[in-house]
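Q: Got a minute? One more chain.
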Amino acid sequence: MVRTRTSAVPAVAVAVGALAALLPGAAAASAAPANSPVDAGQYRIAADAEPVEGSASSANGGRLAAGKTYTDAIGPEEQLYYSVTLDAKSTAWVSAVAVPRPGTKVDGNDGIELALAAKDGTPCGMTSRVEFDEDNAARPIANHVRRLIQPDGECQQAGVYDFTVTREGEATGGPEDWVLELRFMEEPPLAKAASTTPPEPESLPTEQPPPPTAKAEPRTGGTGFNDAVGIDQGVWSDRIKPGDTHFYRVPLDWGQQLFLTAEFGTTRVTDPSDYASRGVGLDFYDPARGHVGSYAQSYYGDEPAAAPLGAPPIAYENRYQRYLPGIGNTGVAGWYYLAVTVTDEVGEFTAGGGVPVVLRTTVTGEPKEGPVYDGDAAAAGFGVTDEDRDTAAAGRPADEDGDGDGAGRTILAIAGIGAGVVLLAGLGLWTLLARRRAAPGAGPGPGSGAGPGAGPRVAGEDTRTAPGVYPDGPPQPGGPYGAPQGGQPYGEGYPPPGPQQNWRR
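A: Always. Here it is, folded:
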C-alpha cells in the first residue's frame, strides 16, 4: 500500500529483513555467475540440502543430523516436530529460515517460533520468535534456538530432543506453504574454562568511528545465506531492485566489532507524492543464522535514506546474556550476515531500475585470543581463518570458498504446488505434495521461557560452562544492545538517533 506523502514522517520501529524471492514456476536449476545479479524469484538454497518431513507429533519427528542442511514446507498455523540427537558436551544451534512465496500478503505478526526441548517436554532454553513486524512484505526470515552446556542446567544429557517450528500469526499470510531451510550446527566443547559472565550493556563501546570515505567498489550481494558475498572494511556499492534482498557476510573474530551504514540513494520517481514507509532496511544475523538486530527506514525515491547498524565486540561470554539478543547472539566468531532490502512497495512509485546502495563498513579491534576448544571450531562454522579474510577482501561468495558453509551451492528454483513445493537441485528432484497436516488433538509444542535460574558465573571443569544470568531478572527496557520494541539499543551512542530500531527476539 502506498501512503500519501506528508511533510514530516517519523521513522518507525520495525525490522526489514530479506525479501529474496522464489521462482513463480518450477525450472531447471542453474547456477548464476559468481558475484553477479540474480533475477528476482530465485533463492539460493544449499545444493546439498536434503528433504525432510516434519511431523504433527513429537513421536516421529523428521531427523536432523549435525552439520547438515534440510528443506521442508510449513502451512498456516502448523507446528512441525523434528528430532535432533545431542551429545553431552557440545553447544547445539538449530536454525530455521522461512521463505514465503514472493508477493504473499503477510501481517506484521506473522512469523515462526522455534523451540528445543527434551522428550519429557522440558525446555532447553528460551523459545525464539522472528516475525515480519509491520512492513507487510513477504521475505525470508530466520532465527535459531540453542542448547548451552552448563552445570545443573536442563537438557545436559546425551539423547534425542525435539526441535519445533510453529507458523504463527494472522490469516493474512494466506493458505500457501512457506519453504523452510533447517540447519543443525554443533560448536565444539571447551578444553579450558572460559568466562561466562555476560557484559553489562552499559559497559560496551557504542561510539561510531569515522566511516570510511574511499571510492565505493562494486560488490553485488547474494540471494541468501548460502551465496552471501564477502565484504570487509571499506565502501561497497550495489543496486537492489524493489522486492529484492542482497546478502553479504563479514568475518568477525574474537574482540572485533562491526559498525555499518547502508545508504540508499535517489532514483527516478513516477509520483513524488508517494513513499514507502519502512521501504528500505537491513537485518543482521550471526554465524548460526540467529537474528542479531535490524533497522528500517522510510524511502521516498527522490530523497536519500540511511540505515545504521552496529554490534558489540564478539566475545564468548556474550551468549550468556539471555534477554538481549543484540548481545546474546554475538557470542561466537565467524561469518556474520547482512541482508539489505528494498521492498516491492518501492516499485510502485519508482522507475529507475533499482535503488543504488552504498555500504560503509568499519571493523574495529584486532583479533584476540579466543576460547580454547576441544575440536576444530572454525571447521564447524565458528571461527575466522586467514582464508576467510582473503575471501572477504576478494568479494567471493559463500558458494565459492569451500568452507563448508556454501561449498557446492547452486540456485534452486522453488515453486508452490498446492500444499507443497517442488525443489529442483542440480542432480536431484523431489516433490513435497499433500503434506500431512496436524492431526486433531495433537498437543502443543514446548512452552517458552528461560531454563533454570541463575547458576555459577564461572566456567566449570571438564569443558563445561555455566550461564551468567541476571539473578534479579532481565534488564529493564531502554538499555543498549537489544532493547524491547521502541527502546534504543545503543543508549545515547551509535547508531544515531534510533527510536525506529527494533532488536527482535
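A: Residues 1-41, 403-505 have pLDDT under 50 and may be disordered.
Q: Perfect, thanks.
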